[in-house]
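can u do me a favor
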């Protein structure tokens, strides 16, 4: 007997090679079974009618900013993640060693959205890029904020929810000195090695080349903003994918979308896809400056990759199974295999004409849109707005 049965949806689970109409039975906070006519086995709780809908493992947004009220880019996770189809939000460095305890108590612990986090190397966490106009201060311009011992201490104290280390290494975040940038990366590696978790790097407009940056990354590390249109991107001056990018992917470095307000260009994405550089993960980089567009939510970002020609199962893999692997939770999240967490996202794929903008204001018209209908998070049901 099940606590909940999700009935008759088109179940897409890339981890099981599954794309078929089926029922899903949930028992407590876990998936119990997938099959036909599960209602015949009995259900003590609710039956959710998913006929005509797509049902997938709960979506994981690998790049968000949800330290609302403290970090300058923060938005409320439940309104902009859970209620928009995302059951697990990975905060990408909003908090550092000096601010993480507050993030844990006042956001992570009280949100219905499951939140895990990349700890910022800077003890300050993220600072607003335009706080002082032309005199803006980056969070890692002063290397003293990158205290390795303190970062390791906090990452170990909150090991249940800290999944890696985040650094932004553009000029406005670390300054224009190449050796200073190298020191930031060295310290990020020291922390990551000590805690056995990956680095997520925000590149572009950097004092060192992308070739040098990638040479310092290890399997499991993550390069976000893969399709940004700034200098030192994945395409060289001939618009060809750099050899160093292909080499990094071959040795296990992940490349993440991280759309954001300024980090996704149609032209770069299209060239990357055409040359065999699809993203490993599709993430929104949702924050206060883009919730009104061009990002809106992860579903809109995912719809852009349907527009670019990626198949629906390929898109689903990049918002479920692969981000789960990136955060070391492939057995529990991003899958509907029996025993996994009872995280599900229910969607409608709607045909029509949908304006889709990149981060530079260029608009294209998509023919289909993914629309979140509901989620279950550890078996608890939430309707999407």
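np, heres the sequence
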């Amino acid at each position: 007997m099940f606590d909940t049965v999700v009935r008759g949806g088109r179940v897409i689970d890339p981890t099981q090679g599954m794309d078929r109409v089926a029922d899903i039975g949930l028992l407590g906070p876990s998936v119990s079974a997938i099959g036909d006519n599960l209602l015949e086995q009995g259900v003590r709780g609710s039956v959710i009618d998913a006929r005509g809908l797509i049902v997938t493992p709960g979506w994981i947004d690998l790049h968000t900013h949800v330290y609302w009220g403290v970090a300058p880019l923060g938005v409320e996770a439940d309104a902009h993640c859970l209620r928009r189809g995302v059951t697990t939000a990975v905060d990408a460095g909003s908090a550092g060693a000096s601010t993480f305890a507050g993030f844990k108590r006042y956001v992570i612990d009280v949100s219905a959205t499951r939140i895990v986090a990349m700890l910022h190397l800077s003890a300050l966490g993220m600072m607003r890029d335009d706080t002082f106009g032309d005199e803006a201060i980056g969070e890692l311009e002063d290397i003293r904020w990158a205290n390795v011992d303190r970062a390791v201490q906090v990452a170990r104290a909150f090991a249940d929810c800290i999944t890696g280390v985040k650094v932004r290494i553009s000029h406005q975040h670390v300054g224009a000195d190449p050796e200073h940038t190298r020191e930031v990366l060295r310290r990020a590696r020291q922390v990551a090695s000590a805690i056995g978790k990956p680095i997520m790097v925000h590149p572009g407009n950097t004092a060192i080349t992308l070739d040098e940056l990638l040479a310092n990354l290890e399997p499991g590390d993550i390069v976000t903003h893969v399709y940004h249109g700034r200098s030192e991107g994945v395409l060289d001056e001939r618009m060809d994918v750099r050899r160093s990018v292909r080499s990094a992917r071959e040795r296990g470095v992940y490349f993440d979308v991280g759309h954001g307000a300024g980090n996704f260009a149609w032209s770069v994405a299209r060239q990357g896809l055409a040359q065999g550089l699809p993203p490993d993960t599709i993430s929104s980089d949702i924050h206060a400056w883009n919730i009104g567009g061009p990002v809106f939510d992860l579903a809109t970002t995912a719809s852009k990759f349907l527009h670019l020609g990626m198949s629906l199962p390929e898109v689903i893999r990049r918002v479920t199974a692969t981000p789960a692997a990136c955060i070391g939770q492939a057995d529990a999240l991003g899958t509907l295999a029996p025993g996994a967490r009872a995280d599900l996202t229910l969607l409608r794929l709607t045909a029509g004409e949908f304006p889709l903008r990149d981060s530079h204001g260029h608009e294209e018209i998509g023919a289909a849109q993914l629309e979140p209908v509901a989620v279950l998070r550890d078996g608890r049901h939430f309707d999407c707005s």
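The chain has a mean pLDDT of 96. hope that helps!!
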